[in-house]
Design brief:
By secondary structure, the protein is of the alpha/beta class. The protein contains 16 helices and 9 strands. It is globular.
Length: 447
């Protein structure tokens, strides 16, 4: 391995170790103004004379090569960034950015599409911005994730890192995460600058917010991107969001994770062009204003005990009394999406009490602090029952969302390595405990 590669990996691991030593929940909230303080980068804007609809999904619109940055510091490794055509949550043509980092030791025959868990309502926090050298509070997360990317690069994988939320930061919009990821792979293999091509095999990998993109990409690939489907060897994910309506009930009143409730309201409203503000009371509107362009580090631990009822007008105490909410939640439910046809490794923690989430509602049960374990089991069992027996499932009873990520990452790397090597995929079908119902949400009457 070259000295440049060793240096990069050393810097990545050291940076991640220092940053993860400080809990994200202690970060000071950033104001909406602060979230937009980074000057606009013209690379992200498509200004061509042809409309985006004139291009096929995955078409490269622009490219540039720059130094890979960690917390704003340039490293010896180069990264290729691509502006490409994709499809948003409402099925409209959109432009998005992905980053390709070439392994110093790889031969371009294998690559991993790594989906970041940057979870933000600000486009400035996307991984491509962090890699280009921009530093923001929410952008710290893509820098922390260098600890996951370094082993991939060291083992010869080229790494493709899409901005899964798109340029409007459509937080939690799973279908759009999926199309952004699939079109990112298309773009990466079409660009001469990346060295990747139609013969490059791909694995999908992501945790938490990154698992949303990973699973939706695997589910959508056969219908949306059959050309990408043929390149996939499998998907590895952990800390998975399956049925968002269940998750919002699970974190209701949590000490740490309850801030995702207003983030989800904003993300759903933005992604599907609906207005949920008329259902909120004064306090709810105040919280939404605070988080309008915030990231997960603005939300974690800053709204302890927050509940939907505290934010909503009394007649909307049950969010299912809002038709637009029910419709959006059902669009985001992975239980209603297609079954992936490639092997999958799905891991989930179940010690959410360690992160201040004590919810154990009927039909929902326990989780890792933010993700519902029964939902993840149900999805894995559903995949087994609908034709995909190559599902490996791991449940970490003593680990919460944060702790499980470390164990998952090591296992995922080994599992993906076996898929690239062509070894038979293991199966836990028949051994996965029963989970929750993933049936669509039903409307409820006003209170």
């Amino acid at each position: 391995m070259s000295k440049a590669a060793v240096r990069l990996i050393s810097v990545a691991v050291a940076t991640a170790a220092v940053m993860t030593a400080a809990p994200a929940a202690t970060a000071a909230p950033s104001s909406p103004a602060a979230a937009t303080s980074t000057p606009s980068d013209p690379f992200y804007a498509y200004g061509g004379s042809e409309p985006l609809s004139a291009f096929a999904p995955g078409t490269v619109l622009k490219n540039r090569t720059l130094q890979y940055h960690l917390v704003g510091i340039s490293t010896p490794l180069k990264a290729v960034q691509l502006l490409y055509r994709t499809t948003d949550a409402q099925g409209r043509p959109a432009a998005n950015v992905t980053t390709v980092v070439r392994s110093p030791t790889g031969d371009r025959s294998k690559a991993v599409s790594y989906q970041s868990f940057y979870d933000s309502l600000s486009p400035e926090d996307g991984p491509s911005r962090a890699i280009a050298g921009n530093v923001s509070l929410g952008g710290l997360i893509p820098n922390v994730e260098a600890v996951f990317l370094a082993p991939l690069l060291a083992q010869g994988y080229d790494v493709v890192i899409p901005d899964t939320e798109g340029q409007q930061a459509h937080f939690a919009a799973g279908p759009e995460y999926g199309t952004n990821t699939l079109d990112s792979i298309r773009a990466a293999t079409k660009s001469a600058q990346t060295g990747l091509n139609s013969a490059t095999a791909f694995g999908l990998m992501g945790y938490s917010g990154g698992s949303i993109a990973t699973n939706w990409a695997a589910a959508l690939a056969p219908s949306y991107a059959p050309d990408v489907q043929r390149k996939l060897v499998g998907y590895a994910e952990g800390g998975l969001l399956v049925d968002p309506a269940h998750n919002l009930k699970y974190v209701d009143g949590s000490l740490v994770w309850s801030g995702v409730i207003p983030m989800a309201v904003i993300g759903v409203s933005r992604s599907y062009g609906i207005d949920l503000t008329s259902y909120l009371n004064g306090y709810g509107l105040e919280v939404l204003k605070e988080l309008e362009r915030g990231s997960i580090v603005d939300a974690l631990g800053h709204y302890p005990g927050l509940t939907w009822k505290k934010m909503a007008k009394s007649q909307y105490a049950d969010p299912n009394s809002i038709p637009a909410f029910v419709e959006a939640m059902n669009k985001l439910n992975l239980g209603s999406a297609a079954t992936p046809t490639v092997p999958g490794f799905i891991a989930q923690g179940n010690a959410g009490v360690l992160e201040g989430t004590f919810g154990n509602h009927p039909g929902i049960g326990t989780g890792d602090g933010v993700m519902v374990t029964g939902d993840v089991r149900a999805l894995a069992r559903q995949y087994c029952a609908t034709g995909n027996s190559a599902v490996k499932y791991g449940q970490y009873e003593l680990l919460s969302h944060t702790g499980a990520s470390v164990v998952w990452a090591s296992a995922a790397l080994g599992w993906l390595g076996d898929r690239f090597a062509g070894r038979p995929a293991p199966s836990d079908c028949g051994r996965i405990p029963a989970g929750n119902s993933l049936a669509p949400e039903e409307p409820a009457p006003l209170s």
